[in-house]
Design a protein that fits this description.
This protein has about 850 residues and is α+β, with helices and mostly antiparallel strands. Helix content is about 25%, strand content about 35%. The strands form 13 sheets. It has a 6-stranded antiparallel beta sheet with strand order 3-2-4-10-7-8, with no helix packed on it. It has a 6-stranded parallel beta sheet with strand order 29-28-27-26-25-32.
């Protein structure tokens, strides 16, 4: 029932914006065939779709996500493909003055023919295309063909012309049989399709978004921008900027703005001339209901219908659902003269708690509305309020932003550039201008978008990764050209078009970013930090590294065993050094060894593959928890923590906190806990334990801290309480205690520090802290007792232990299950309850449920 309700809500949301008159639009998604252009064989195709998924449906290729199959499909992107359908057109459609053929997305180089007339040459995956085809249509047997050119064949001559000039850090050209020919920078196409350090190389082609006809006469609304000129609790001044295309003069037009109850908000008489017209209508909303992000209030929204009326007849209409809010990004100098970086929403300073999002699949058309809902819902369940749409993927589908609007998730929106230098000149640059114009217009009414960013790590790659210095030694003139092109792209072109189309929105040239002409420096603006992970710094280094805003940081882990079995069913491959495990690890030849190094140094040596998977997840979870707590303790100096990354695009070992199949890793559970609005966090400095309270709630809180030191067998060593008033939006030191007073005669390896924080509002938080590395904890063998009771939607599992248990993980031999708690600690004799949702009966859950913990991993 809940699943069905979710889908209804999704469909309602995704259909709420940019509505046209119903009779104007007809989708052309039926009766498609496809095949190689140089062969006569044709097969049924699904539109929207891509070549790879159509080939899989016909059994012509195997699933590239399973085993090593990806290797066997690299021929697909070297071929040209033809898609074809026939359709009929009613007399009613032909009676209209205009009939437009519209493609919301063609991937990527495509020639379109209608009834043997070439009507379009597409060259940008991110653009929408509209062609007036009225003169070419007939009633019956209209033939629509889309010829997709191989992006490899199209772009190879460009690489040969500019060999060595442009670089792409993650383009897996070798896996595609192209040696060092990194072609991705020449195509306006999702960069991750060419491979990334977490993704496969699957370079797709296809009609990847809707294709339809729109028929109209006299007038149509081409764009509506509800420009929020001023927003406060007292009033909102909104300017409805309407673009109208007409094929006649309309001297007596009336522009009317209606609310969702059909009441007129404002109307304006105007004269429309044949061609393009822009009309602005201002209106005021008193005491508006504001749109807030998660944790600060409700994400209230308004629906407005813009109508064009002439002589009492409705000519065109457009519906938009918006949220009224004001957003600022403060980058003023701090006390040391370094640039700050924090968001102010509706006058309230916000600590951004969130994650980085990549496309949910390499085959984009397989991502269902339900999957969008669950992916974003998982961010909400982890107490996040911001999600960054990363620049190597796509400008997401409308439903993504609709759901973020609905859920109160702020969106940091990258333009689609990542970890590369680009040929920013000529036709390529003009295509980028059109791409930016198209997508800003499509997305700018969404209240969730709080930042437009030039791209991901492109400026850092040039200035900080040695690219500039290397090229200056071998090709000084080329280096000057590349630098000029990159600066023109990020500082001029994207800046200018953002300022023109969303004058009050925030733009930053890239992430991370400090000042013009330099890479990031760790003290100005936002920061990406991978010293922990990439450079084998210990996890504890998160407690020492600072920034005004961490927009990326992360640690890799493997998926859980049930997920691994889905892409590696052959158990003989279950070794981190096996060919298959290395193939599903794109972080480099040393990446699995890095995970192993961290596991051994933080937790000790797992005895088998399943224990290693568990330990890798525990490692990632503890690392993300440590980082988040450090960032939050450091507020207001630090006001943002966006971890890398939220999701995967295929089954792989990666930085994601949710695996490709949607299962939460240990990190997602621990991130959820660390992002709670009231946080209690302890850190050891020298010979003292410091305990902080962080309050994201917008009310001051009187809090009571109860700190207890237990032996691992359950004996109380020390206990004390502390009461203090903490202000809203602050981090407060509650307690500083010497370790000798806490430990008495006990050793660090034999105790756990338990903290319980209760606020006057009733909000509570509990956490454990350790005074040594977890590999040095002298954990004891524990006896678990549990029971399983049926409840609506699943079952309740009650577990308790006779000894302290670290990071108990519940596993279920089933593809679909979810628990509201996992990888949790057990204090001796204290029961813990968790809700488990699955299709299994309680009896089956009892039989198929298994446990693993750090205690059991250490048992010999």
């Amino acid at each position: 029932m809940m699943r069905g309700l979710c889908l209804v809500i999704i469909l309602m949301i995704s259909g709420s914006c940019n509505q046209m008159l119903a009779e104007q639009r007809r989708y052309l998604h039926d009766n498609w065939t496809f095949g190689l252009t140089h062969q006569s064989s044709r097969y049924p195709a699904v539109v929207p779709g891509v070549v790879h998924t159509d080939l899989m449906r016909q059994g012509l290729i195997k699933d590239p996500y399973i085993g090593l199959n990806e290797r066997d499909v690299q021929w697909v992107d070297k071929e040209d493909w033809l898609y074809e359908t026939t359709f009929r057109v009613t007399d009613g459609v032909l009676a209209e003055e205009h009939v437009d053929l519209c493609f919301d997305g063609l991937d990527t180089y495509a020639d379109v023919y209608l009834n043997d007339h070439k009507i379009l040459e597409a060259d940008n995956m991110f653009r929408r295309w509209r062609i007036d085809v009225k003169s070419l249509l007939r009633v019956d047997n209209n033939v629509l063909r889309v010829y997709f050119h191989s992006p490899i064949k199209v772009d190879m001559p460009k690489w040969e012309k500019h060999s060595g000039l442009y670089d792409a850090a993650n383009d897996q050209s070798e896996n595609g049989g192209l040696q060092d020919r990194k072609l991705s920078v020449f195509a306006r196409k999702a960069g991750y399709h060419y491979g990334w350090d977490w993704g496969p190389r699957l370079v797709t082609s296809g009609i990847w978004r809707d294709v339809y006809m729109e028929a109209w006469s006299k007038a149509r609304i081409t764009d509506v921008y509800l420009h929020q000129c001023e927003v406060s609790k007292q009033k909102a001044i909104v300017r409805d900027e309407v673009q109208i295309e007409t094929d006649i003069d309309i001297p007596n037009a009336v522009i009317t703005v209606m609310d969702n109850k059909g009441r007129s908000v404002v109307q304006k008489k105007c004269s429309l001339r044949k061609g393009q017209n822009t009309v602005s209508v201002d209106f005021v909303i008193k005491n508006p209901r504001l749109w807030w992000c998660r944790g600060l209030g409700k994400p209230e929204r308004y629906t407005f219908m813009t109508n064009v009326v002439a002589d009492g007849k409705l000519m065109a209409r457009n519906e938009q659902r918006i949220g009224l809010r004001s957003v600022r990004l403060v980058m003023d100098p701090d006390e040391k003269g370094n640039s700050q970086f924090y968001f102010v929403l509706n006058g309230v300073r916000v600590f951004a708690k969130g994650t980085n999002y990549i496309p949910q699949d390499n085959f984009l058309t397989t991502v269902t509305p339900e999957r969008y809902w669950q992916t974003l819902r998982d961010a909400v369940l982890a107490n996040m309020n911001m999600i960054r749409v990363w620049g190597g993927g796509i400008y997401e589908n409308d439903i993504f932003y609709d759901l973020c609007d609905e859920m109160g998730l702020m969106v940091w929106q990258d333009f689609m550039f990542a970890c590369s230098t680009y040929p920013a000149e000529g036709d390529w640059l003009e295509s980028v201008r059109q791409e930016a114009d198209d997508n800003i217009r499509r997305l700018r009414n969404h209240p969730c978008i709080v930042l437009w960013c030039g791209g991901n790590e492109c400026l850092d790659a040039w200035y900080n990764w040695g690219w500039k210095g290397r090229m200056e030694k071998t090709d000084p003139e080329g280096a000057r050209l590349v630098e000029q092109q990159q600066e023109h792209l990020y500082y001029d072109v994207l800046q200018e078009i953002t300022s023109q189309l969303v004058p009050d929105d925030i733009y930053t040239p890239g992430s991370p970013y400090s000042v013009r002409g330099h890479g990031s420096d760790g003290v100005n603006g936002d920061r990406h930090f991978y010293g922990v992970g990439h450079r084998r710094m210990p996890v504890s280094m998160y407690n020492q590294e600072t920034s005004h805003f961490f927009s990326e940081y992360g640690m890799q882990s493997f998926p859980e065993y049930a997920s691994v079995l889905r892409y590696a069913p052959d158990t003989t491959t279950h070794d981190i050094g096996s060919q298959l495990m290395m193939w599903h690890q794109r972080g480099g030849v040393e990446a699995n060894k890095v995970i192993e190094w961290y596991v051994n140094n933080e937790y000790g040596h797992p005895r088998d593959f399943r224990q290693f998977l568990y330990a890798s997840q525990l490692l990632q979870g503890d690392a993300m928890r440590t980082a988040i707590e450090s960032h939050r303790r450091d507020m207001p100096h630090c006001m943002g923590s966006l971890l890398w990354q939220h999701n995967d695009c295929w089954p792989v070992a990666s930085w994601s906190t949710r695996d490709y199949y949607g299962h939460w890793k240990a990190a997602h559970y621990m991130v959820r806990h660390a992002f709670e609005p009231l946080l209690c966090s302890a850190v050891t400095k020298g010979d003292s334990l410091l305990v902080y309270a962080v309050n994201d709630l917008q009310l001051r809180q009187q809090v009571r801290l109860r700190l207890t030191v237990y032996t691992l067998s359950g004996q109380t060593v020390h206990t004390q309480t502390q009461t203090k008033v903490i202000l809203p939006n602050t981090s407060t030191l509650l307690l500083k205690q010497s370790l000798s007073e806490l430990l008495k005669e006990h050793k660090r390896e034999d105790v756990v520090v338990n903290m319980s924080l209760t606020a006057s509002s009733g909000v509570a938080y509990e956490a454990n802290s350790f005074l040594c590395l977890q590999k040095d904890l002298r954990l004891l063998p524990a006896k678990l007792a549990f029971q399983v009771d049926a409840v609506d939607g699943g079952c309740i599992i009650t577990i308790k232990s006779d000894k302290f248990v670290r990071a108990l993980a519940i596993s279920l031999d089933a593809e679909k299950y979810w628990s509201d708690k996992n990888y949790f600690d057990l204090l001796p004799g204290v029961p813990v309850q968790c809700f488990l949702r699955s299709s299994l009966s309680p009896a089956d859950v009892r039989q198929r449920m298994t446990f693993i913990s750090l205690n059991s991993m250490k048992e010999q």
